[in-house]
Amino acid sequence: MVLALVLFLLTYVALLIFANYRAYIALASGALFVILGILPLRDVPSAVDWNVIMMIAGTMGTVHYFIKSRMPALMADHIIDKMPNVKWVIIALSLFAGLISAFVDNVATVLMVAPVALVVSKRLNISPVSPIIAISVSSNLQGAATLVGDTTSILLGKQADMNFMDFFYYGGKPGLFFVVQIGALMATLVLVYEFRKLKQKVYLEEKAQVSDYFPTVLLAGTVVLLILASFIPQDQKPATINGMICMGVMLIGLIRDMLLTKKPLAALREVMKEIDFFTLLLLTGLFVVIAGITEAGVVDEIGRVFAGIAGGNLFIAFTLIVWASVLFSAFIDNIPYVATMLPVTAVIAAHLQVEPTVLYFGLLVGATLGGNITPIGASANITSIGILRKNGYEVQNWDFMRISIPFTLLAVVSGYVLVWLFWA
Question: What pTM was estimated for this model as a whole?
Answer without folding.
Answer: 0.75
